[in-house]
């Protein structure tokens, strides 16, 4: 595609980015049309902005800040930044995200410019990413990106659907989170399908046939000799202890609580379940018999899950520190899926360069 060539589009995508506004020289809520000598080079080499005429480049406010600080291009006017911040109070945060991605060499195309390349991304994605040795004009994006402030709400159901949609398109779902210091951390999202090696449904049937038990704390104790369930139960001096959620399954309480439904699903997947208290979750889950290997999964109850991205980052980092995957259950039409928020490989951890 030649510099300045445009394509029309009927798509009106509501995203975290400002939508493209083709008119005006310095539209603070949309674009700045840069006409300097570096316009063609900025696009051909770095895929920055959107060419809209011969040697003219439409730049979003975040891109304007990036070319100012990293390509030594003067801002449109002396008061441009103040006016831009009035229009968008999150501009510095968005710029920090763009800087973290672009300084290592990634090419980032904002959602409002994707139609220029005849590409489409998810309506909730902020941008698409290409590696440093590729270009949007002749290759496909490798990831789609969303960004959040640490105080933003964590909506696991909506995030899981976005994750599935982006993964099905062949791209990696990436989330970048910015904090009060304008520091950026990167996470990759995935929909996990945890499976264990033990026989499915055996544990649920065995629990349903249990009776008796001695009350202990918020659960029940059963004699060692009567306990045949490999997937559940904590040995104690008084017998095998099961928690209150397991007791719901034993007693057949209806309607089932959310916790009982999730536990039943994990058991039916053949996983071995143990308390996850020491890791800040409800359960740790083994995919092999106890003692064969470490537990690869930590599962949180949705009611106990972090409510914002600061909490999600903490939970994911704690899980990564003990080589486990943090899972948030998501109910989809009566069945359970599991959203994983994980730290990416070292070569895909985008963060701020040294602060000025």
Can you offer a commentary on this structure?
- The protein is an alpha+beta fold and 356 residues long.
- Among the domains are: 1-108, Trna Endonuclease, Chain: A, domain 1 (3-Layer(aba) Sandwich); 202-341, Trna Endonuclease, Chain: A, domain 1, CATH 3.40.1350.
- The chain is built from nine helices and 17 strands.
- Strands 4-5-6-7-8-17-16-15-14-13 form a ten-stranded mixed β-sheet. A four-stranded antiparallel β-sheet has the order 9-10-12-11, with helices on one face. Strands 1-3-2 form a three-stranded antiparallel β-sheet.
- The longest helix has 13 residues, at 156-168.
- The model is unreliable at 6-29 (pLDDT under 50).
Short description:
The protein has helices spanning 39-46, 61-70, 80-87, 91-102, 156-168, 202-208, 244-251, 258-268, 309-321, and strands spanning 32-34, 50-53, 56-59, 107-110, 127-130, 143-149, 172-178, 184-192, 214-216, 219-222, 234-236, 239-242, 272-275, 283-286, 297-299, 325-332, 335-342. It has 9 helices and 17 strands. By secondary structure, it is α+β, with helices and mostly antiparallel strands.
Q: What CATH architecture label of the domain at 202-341 applies?
A: 3-Layer(aba) Sandwich
Count of extended strands: 17
Q: Strand order across the biggest sheet? A: 4-5-6-7-8-17-16-15-14-13
Helix content: 25-40%
Can you write the helix and strand succession as a string? EHEEHHHEEEHEEHEEEEHHEEEHEE
Poorly predicted tracts of residues: 6-29
Strand content: 15-25%
Q: Which CATH C-level class of the domain at 202-341 is it?
A: Alpha Beta
How would a crystallographer describe the biggest sheet?
10 strands, mixed
Number of helices: 9
């Amino acid at each position: 595609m030649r510099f300045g060539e445009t394509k029309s589009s009927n798509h009106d995508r509501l995203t975290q980015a400002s939508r493209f506004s083709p008119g005006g020289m310095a539209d603070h809520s949309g674009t700045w049309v840069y006409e300097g000598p570096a316009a063609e080079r900025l696009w051909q080499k770095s895929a920055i902005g959107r060419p809209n005429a011969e040697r003219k480049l439409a730049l979003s406010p975040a891109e304007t800040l990036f070319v100012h600080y990293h390509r030594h291009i003067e801002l449109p006017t002396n008061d441009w930044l103040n006016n831009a911040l009035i229009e968008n109070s999150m501009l510095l945060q968005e710029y920090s995200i763009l800087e973290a991605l672009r300084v290592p060499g990634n090419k980032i195309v904002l959602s409002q410019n994707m139609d220029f390349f005849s590409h489409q991304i998810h309506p909730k994605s902020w941008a698409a990413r290409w590696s440093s040795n590729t270009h949007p004009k002749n290759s496909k994006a490798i990831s789609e990106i969303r960004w959040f402030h640490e105080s933003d709400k964590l909506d696991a159901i909506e995030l899981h659907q976005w994750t599935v949609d982006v993964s099905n398109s062949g791209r990696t779902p990436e989330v970048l989170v910015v904090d009060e210091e304008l520091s950026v951390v990167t996470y990759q999202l995935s929909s996990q399908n945890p499976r264990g090696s033990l026989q499915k449904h055996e544990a649920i049937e065995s629990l349903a046939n249990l009776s008796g038990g001695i009350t202990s704390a918020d659960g029940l104790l059963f004699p060692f000799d009567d306990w045949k369930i490999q997937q559940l139960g904590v040995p104690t001096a008084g017998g095998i202890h099961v928690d209150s959620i397991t007791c719901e399954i034993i007693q057949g309480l209806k309607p089932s609580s959310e916790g009982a439904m999730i536990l039943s699903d994990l058991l039916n997947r053949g996983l071995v379940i143990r308390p996850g208290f020491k890791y800040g979750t409800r359960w740790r889950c083994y995919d092999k018999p106890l003692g064969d290997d470490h537990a690869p999964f930590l599962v949180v109850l949705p009611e106990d899950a972090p409510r914002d991205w600061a909490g999600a980052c903490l939970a994911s980092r704690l899980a990564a520190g003990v080589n486990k995957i943090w899972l948030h259950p998501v109910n989809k039409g009566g069945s359970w899926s599991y959203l994983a928020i994980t730290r990416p490989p070292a070569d895909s951890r985008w963060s701020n360069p040294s602060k000025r």
